[in-house]
Every structure is written in C-alpha cells, then in structure tokens.
TrEMBL record:
This is Uncharacterized protein. It comes from the Bacteria. The lineage of its organism: Bacteria, Pseudomonadati, Pseudomonadota, Gammaproteobacteria, Moraxellales.
Amino acid sequence: MAQIIFQTRQEYLQSAFNDIAKIISDHGRPTLDAFVPAFSTQKCLSHLALVCYEWSYDHSLIDAYLETYKAANKELQENMGDC
C-alpha cells in the first residue's frame, strides 16, 4: 500500500473532508437508484459544506456532490410526488 504524506495539517484535513463527502455521496447513491429521494444525504452534505466554509476549507467538491443530490432529489420529488 502506498504511503500518503501531507505537507500540512490543512492539506490533511482538506483531503479528509473530500473523502468523507465522497463516502456520503456513495452511500446515498443506492437510494437514488431505487428512485427515492435521498434527502438525508443532501442534508448531510449541506452540513459538511457549511462546516468546511466556517473553518475556511475549500468546499467546492462537496458543493458539487450537494448540487447533484439537490437536482436528483428535486426531479424525483416532482416526478414521483411525496415519498
């Protein structure tokens, strides 16, 4: 296994935020695949982005995941009604 070395604590934490966002997004994917809105995933990503923002970390990757879930949830809710 390759060793990953970060130059600063900030780089490490940024990587951790991005990895956690991917894990959360991947975890919500089966819900969308079942044609059910993944509102809990959207809320979790939204909160994670807020924490990154408040701690002055880059939240652009998290925002990309979040926008994907917002759009998918909105589309499912409009087409399927309330679940």
